[in-house]
């Protein structure tokens, strides 16, 4: 696909299977899309997991779950997980005693910092209809000075996640960062994204046929910008048409126009990741990301000796009761989407504007 390279598109390739390629300050990106069937009374799937079920040809995956899909307790250190949802629900539990159920447009931002154990399970809460799940999980690196910070997480409920909608039906969901004066919710305090000058942005863009949207340029040095075409039969990037899913490295100093032609048979969706590079050495092994190999070995020793505080939940693959609804329990305080004041602030552009 070298012919797709333009003054704006620095490099382009087939998207491939996740995890997708990323650039500093991002470490990891996965687009989860599963068509889970109706669950039973225990929110279980009819298929039993095998401990490593990542078959991309299957209608859904059990991942590391057994009866309920998901990722039972596992450790992290030295980075952040950003889980941006579109459909379905996720049950979160961690070694700090925090937990919650979120989804359907919510975003959870967790700083692993010096070490946390957490679980992410996908209970099949609907018994009479399918349980489709769509979400991104993105790993954002932490600079050396914050790698051993106190773990934390923030829940951004769907009505707090801002969205720009244009008259042609195109939309941009602002999971993080800024877009034309509209700001995302604040990340945790030790995040690389907490400093606006680092310009960390996460955009989810949906383009119905005959629509377009523009991503402004930036003059800030050191910004990396990548783009992922995750859905659709055709997408136009910087005037170049692609009829298969692609990954592209974008020149952030140039404005970028994304469109879906009127002849397209379906909506096209993109994920855009941008941010100033941290520009520090990266040493990674499994769930730990530090700056040196000796720090990685220390992370393993620390986890073996402390379990990062231990696991306070009765099950490794912990889920909450079906009737619980969406909630977050953090630092002894429980909240729900109903506790959020106001509604989503949407930016509606005028006809003809990008």
TrEMBL record:
Gene3D superfamilies: Jelly Rolls. Fe cation binds at residues 74, 76, 118, 120. One of its GO terms (molecular function) is metal ion binding. Keywords: Iron, Metal-binding. Residues 203-309 form the Pirin C-terminal domain. Residues 54-140 form the Pirin N-terminal domain. Binds 1 Fe cation per subunit. It comes from the Eukaryota. The keyword Metal-binding applies. The keyword Ribosomal protein does not apply. Its cofactor is Fe cation. Pfam families: Pirin, Pirin_C. InterPro entries: Pirin, Pirin_C_dom, Pirin_N_dom, RmlC-like_jellyroll, RmlC_Cupin_sf. Belongs to the pirin family. This is Pirin. It comes from Triparma strigata.
